[in-house]
User: Which sequence fits this backbone?
């Protein structure tokens, strides 16, 4: 079996016009696939330079394969089963700014660079006052971006035509506005000057976006078979569903520069992404976030297993139809139709979406995807939504670590969150665990112990999960 690189496969040279912060499964199965389609079907002719947003990442593996990888898309399209595999060749190289900072800054002086795209998880777009302009690099994604933009501003003496178009893909409502606010804070915090500030505001266009494609990632169970079929030892195999939607809140002038329509892609340039965002985050991502720990601790491994399990499937429907759907203000018939479509996507027989892959950064996901629904439900009904609260208790229980049967539970989150949970669980008091988690300002930005009844209910669920097992607790709330 051959190694995969541009000597063993093929080598198409294109200008590097896109900087991508993030090298994970989702960006490679969604954004890079979209760029590949534009390259194949239009004159877009652009390659991507990937920037590793955190110290530990996959850039070395990516560079070992010269940015090449195979993407497997599976699903139902108009009732027809689709299963295709494509070699994606749009990533020219990867840079680790923690070890290659000068190489990273060189991207700023490339006159061809026009777009910046990111997906650094919900926790990635944040302002950290401890970051310094002199850091090599700043730790946060917005900090790194400001360093890059300032270097470009200086190199080209503030030329208006050297501004960039920026598409954040993090699952935060109005992510473009949130990113711009972080950028503004860094400019002021680092005293980078009013002239640079005006250049960013006038010449760098930051647009809010919504992304939608279920991406299980590396197909562990079938990887050996797939490698045999393609004839390459591809360590970056990626797998996603056929469905895709990218909503970009930008004018049609941007669409002309980013010609997804000419490639026949489901990418919408719209005046407002808010209705698309609220519907998708609440009714797709919200159930995803809570079904994962509940399902995993019940002994299940994939999203499909969860929705097809008699008990956990009923739990998913309870959360979706009884608790989250009533918190939205769109027409009920539309929401029911969308929810049923989501369940069909969850049941996709071609996709094995591992629950553990969804558990990455669970607390930040719960904050953006489920906490708004919890609060709205509580305000409207005068009581807490049992399923959503149980989902949070399941996340807290999952973060206790240990084992599920013979499987070691591996927690993937910010070290300070993991350390905090370990300290709280070490007290032996579920009450202290509940109060400590709910009161952590750096997670929630507030003290959730002030939500009426929440601390008591989380404590009760934590006790019940330990004593009875989570599946019995689910039965009690159905």
Assistant:
């Amino acid at each position: 079996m051959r190694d995969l690189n541009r000597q063993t496969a093929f080598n198409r040279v294109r200008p590097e016009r896109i900087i991508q912060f993030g090298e994970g499964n989702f960006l490679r199965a969604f954004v890079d696939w979209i760029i590949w389609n534009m390259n194949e079907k239009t004159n877009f002719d652009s390659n991507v330079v990937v920037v590793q947003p955190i110290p530990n990442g996959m850039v070395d593996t990516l560079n070992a394969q010269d940015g090449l990888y195979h993407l497997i898309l599976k699903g139902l399209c108009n009732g027809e089963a689709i299963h295709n595999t494509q070699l994606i060749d749009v990533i020219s190289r990867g840079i680790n700014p923690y070890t290659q900072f000068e190489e990273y800054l060189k991207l700023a002086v490339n006159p061809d660079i026009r777009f910046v795209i990111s997906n650094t998880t919900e926790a990635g777009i944040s302002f950290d006052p401890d970051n310094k302009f002199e850091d090599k690099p700043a730790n946060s994604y917005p900090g790194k971006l400001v360093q890059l933009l300032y270097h470009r501003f200086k190199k080209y003496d503030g030329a208006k035509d050297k501004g960039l178009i920026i598409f954040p893909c993090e699952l935060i409502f109005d992510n473009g506005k949130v990113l711009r606010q972080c950028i503004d804070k860094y400019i002021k915090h680092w005293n980078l000057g009013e002239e640079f500030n005006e250049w960013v505001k006038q010449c760098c266009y930051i647009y809010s976006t919504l992304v939608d494609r279920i991406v299980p990632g590396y197909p562990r169970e079938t990887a050996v078979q797939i490698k045999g079929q393609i004839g390459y030892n591809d360590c970056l195999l990626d797998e996603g569903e056929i469905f895709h939607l990218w909503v970009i809140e930008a004018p049609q002038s941007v669409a002309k520069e980013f010609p997804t329509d000419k490639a026949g892609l489901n990418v919408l340039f719209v005046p407002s992404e808010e209705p698309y965002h609220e519907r998708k985050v609440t009714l797709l991502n919200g159930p995803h976030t809570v079904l994962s720990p509940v399902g995993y601790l019940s002994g299940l491994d994939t999203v499909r297993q969860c929705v097809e399990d008699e008990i956990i499937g009923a739990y998913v429907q309870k959360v979706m139809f009884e608790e989250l759907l009533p918190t939205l203000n769109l027409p009920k018939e539309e929401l029911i139709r969308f929810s049923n479509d989501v369940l069909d996507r969850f049941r996709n027989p071609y996709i094995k979406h591992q629950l553990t892959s969804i558990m990455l950064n669970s607390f930040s996901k719960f904050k953006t995807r489920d906490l708004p629904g919890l609060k709205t439900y509580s305000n409207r009904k005068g009581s807490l939504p049992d399923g959503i609260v149980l989902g949070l208790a399941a996340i807290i229980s999952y973060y206790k670590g240990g084992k599920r049967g013979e499987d070691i539970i591996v927690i993937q989150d910010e070290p300070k969150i993991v350390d905090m949970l370990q300290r709280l669980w070490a007290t032996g008091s579920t009450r202290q665990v509940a109060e400590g988690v709910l009161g952590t300002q750096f997670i929630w930005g507030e003290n959730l112990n002030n939500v009426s009844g929440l601390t008591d209910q989380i404590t009760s669920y934590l006790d019940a999960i330990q004593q009875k097992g989570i599946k019995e607790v689910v039965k009690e709330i159905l």
Observations:
- The first helix runs from residue 25 to 29.
- The radius of gyration is 23 Å.
